[in-house]
């Protein structure tokens, strides 16, 4: 499986003990990278895999093209070995996180964490096969304005019947 890096590599080795951060990245900004860097340090992740979505079925399409968003990510992270930019979801069309996770795990990836903002946590029950997703990865929720910690904690409580979101990963 090619995750989009120009160099040949073993996918499982690339994303073992990693945080996955998907999104439109339209555009990528320092906030994306600073939150990801902080979370990686807090949970002991060895890598952050940034995956721009091709088409998120729950959101409007991005303004920038796939190629432009990929180029922005690569430029923003080119000097930081913590980050790995993947075009895997761009190659798939509609982006369903569970499909991506399962494909990566079939390729041998282990110990995956899914970084999301508290705003995405509210929408999690609408995601495809959310029970399977929460069983396959450890969600890590980053509180960011306008969603504060209290709002994120309430969303975690509301998800109690959907899957396990551990309090220690609510940052």
Structure summarized in a few sentences:
With 171 residues, the chain is α/β, with parallel strands linked by helices. It has helices at 11-15, 30-43, 66-77, 97-106, 118-123, 130-136, 149-158, and strands at 18-23, 47-52, 83-85, 112-117, 138-142.
Structural notes for this entry:
The protein is of the alpha/beta class and 171 residues long. It contains 7 helices and 5 strands. It has a 5-stranded parallel sheet. The longest helix is centred in the N-terminal third of the chain and has 14 residues, at 30-43. It starts with 10 loop residues before the first helix and ends in a 13-residue tail after the last helix. The model is unreliable at 5-13 and 162-169 (pLDDT under 50).
Which strand order does the major sheet show? 3-2-1-4-5
Largest sheet: 5 strands, parallel
**What is the beta-strand fraction?**
15-25%
The H/E string reads HEHEHEHEHHEH
Number of strands: 5
Helix content: 25-40%
End-to-end distance, in Å?
32 Å
- Structural class determined from secondary elements: alpha/beta
- Radius of gyration (CA) equals 15 Å
Could you report the average pLDDT, rounded to the nearest whole number? 83
Task: Output the number of helix runs.
Answer: 7
Shape annotation: globular
Q: Which parts are unreliable, with pLDDT below 50 for 5 consecutive residues or more?
A: 5-13, 162-169
